[in-house]
């Protein structure tokens, strides 16, 4: 044969071509070693006919397909395990505490959307007890206000309900004290702790509702701006929404009264989101970082120190020209800067929320960023107020102005998830 190629090799090559001509999809070829002293042609002849080769190729193809299916199943299993591992890592990070705030849009990586009572199960036991103690103190303060009201407006029904609520609060304090003792002695296992927490939270929710019903009786007898909002726990469902949106603004002044002793960080007193930008205008103190104002996701750090459990009046002014801003606490300017979202007007048609930070328009709340405390007299102007006008607001002067964009009034605000309204007079509580 030409070139000295054995005829049997040509036959082998032809058989292989015939096999390849069949539509077997992707295949593999198995090489078999042949001893040096063995005739390759006789080896091929002994391997059988073309039909046998076809059968072997089909079997090999079936084996490859089975292995491919097994690999795909294993990949899916690995993907599921990776997802579960990620959840476990997220859980451990939450339990270790949010020690570092995320700059700018990074803080938008929120947790799950489940309704939980302040994500208490994700916090250490000591922090849980601290939150319960703060809530009980808030309830007791509200009951004291109801007592003052009942002295002026005697009602046997109101008094009997007040006494019942006081009794329930006393029982709750005993439960919390018992829980502290159990923790100190190491008697409380996770299952019992969860059951006890759920029972206490259920009672707290019931108390909040009953006290709110009592406070509604005062509503008709007070001016529309003499109220405050209370957010007693870190949750992803307690909030208030301002019914009116903001117009396009090239300058603003935002003022409010705040009272909180939450740590770390008081949370988000307010957030304004617009389509395409959840951080259009946000005030937040998260983790161990200072309070920040965000405009179009650009950040400026503010000099406020307000988590001492006392009422404080704060104001922030801003103009789009050069992004100049000023910060006032209790009537005194404490900081200023520029280049905060310069020449970016505040966009209209958004959603203004009190007590929560929005990851999406009107939602996407994260319990770790929720405001804990009390808020009142939230006003917005579409201009920069003078230092004298801000001082009048902080000192409760009769010359104090109401916001020309958003004015503090009960009719302007809807509340959700257990946040409450009750009578508040700033100057009386501060002086």
TrEMBL record:
Keywords: Calcium, Coiled coil, Disulfide bond, Glycoprotein, Metal-binding, Signal. SUPFAM superfamilies: Concanavalin A-like lectins/glucanases. Residues 129-175 form a coiled coil. Its cofactor is Ca(2+). Residues 89-121 are annotated as: Disordered. GO terms for cellular component: glutamatergic synapse. PROSITE patterns: PTX_1, PTX_2. It comes from the Eukaryota. Residues 1-21 form the signal peptide. SMART domains: PTX (SM00159). Residues 225-427 form the Pentraxin (PTX) domain. Pfam families: Pentaxin. GO terms for molecular function: metal ion binding. One of its GO terms (biological process) is axonogenesis involved in innervation. PANTHER family: NEURONAL PENTRAXIN-1, PENTRAXIN. This is Neuronal pentraxin 1. The lineage of its organism: Eukaryota, Metazoa, Chordata, Craniata, Vertebrata.
């Amino acid at each position: 044969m030409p070139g000295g190629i054995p005829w049997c090799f040509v036959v082998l090559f032809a058989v292989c071509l015939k096999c390849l001509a069949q539509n077997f999809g992707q295949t593999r070829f198995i090489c078999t070693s042949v001893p040096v002293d063995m005739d390759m042609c006789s080896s091929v002849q002994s391997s059988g006919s073309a039909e046998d080769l076809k059968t072997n190729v089909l079997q090999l193809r079936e084996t490859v397909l089975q292995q491919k299916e097994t690999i795909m199943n294993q990949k899916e299993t690995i993907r599921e395990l990776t997802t579960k591992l990620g959840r476990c890592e997220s859980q451990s990070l939450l339990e270790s505490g949010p020690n570092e705030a995320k700059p700018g849009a990074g803080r938008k990586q929120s947790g799950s959307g489940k309704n939980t009572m302040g994500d208490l199960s994700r916090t250490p036991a000591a922090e849980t007890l601290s939150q319960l103690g703060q809530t009980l103190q808030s309830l007791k303060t509200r009951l004291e206000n109801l007592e003052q009201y009942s002295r002026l407006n005697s009602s046997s029904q109101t008094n009997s309900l007040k006494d019942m609520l006081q009794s329930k609060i006393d029982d709750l304090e005993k439960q919390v004290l018992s829980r502290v003792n159990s923790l100190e002695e190491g008697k409380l296992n996770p299952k019992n702790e969860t059951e006890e927490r759920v029972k206490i939270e259920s009672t707290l929710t019931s108390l909040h509702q009953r006290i709110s019903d009592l406070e509604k009786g005062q509503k008709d007898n007070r001016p529309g701006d003499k109220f405050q909002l209370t957010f007693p726990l870190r949750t992803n469902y307690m909030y208030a929404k301002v019914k009116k949106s903001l117009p396009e603004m090239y300058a603003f002044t935002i003022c409010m009264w705040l009272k909180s002793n939450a740590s770390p960080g008081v949370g988000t007193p307010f957030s304004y989101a617009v389509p395409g930008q959840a951080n259009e205008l946000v005030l937040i103190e998260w983790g161990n970082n200072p309070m920040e104002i965000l405009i179009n996701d650009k950040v400026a750090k503010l000099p406020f120190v307000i988590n001492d459990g006392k009422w404080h009046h704060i104001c922030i002014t801003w103009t789009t020209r050069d992004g100049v801003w000023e910060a006032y606490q209790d009537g005194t300017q404490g900081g200023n800067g520029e280049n905060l979202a310069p020449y970016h007007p505040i966009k209209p048609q958004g959603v203004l929320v009190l007590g929560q930070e929005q990851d999406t328009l009107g939602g996407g709340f994260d319990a770790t960023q929720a405001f804990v405390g009390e808020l009142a007299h939230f006003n917005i102007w579409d201009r920069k107020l003078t230092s004298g006008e801000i001082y009048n607001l902080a000192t409760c002067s009769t010359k104090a102005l109401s916001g020309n964009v958003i004015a503090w009034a009960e009719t302007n605000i809807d509340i959700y998830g257990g946040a409450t309204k009750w009578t508040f007079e700033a100057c009386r509580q501060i002086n």
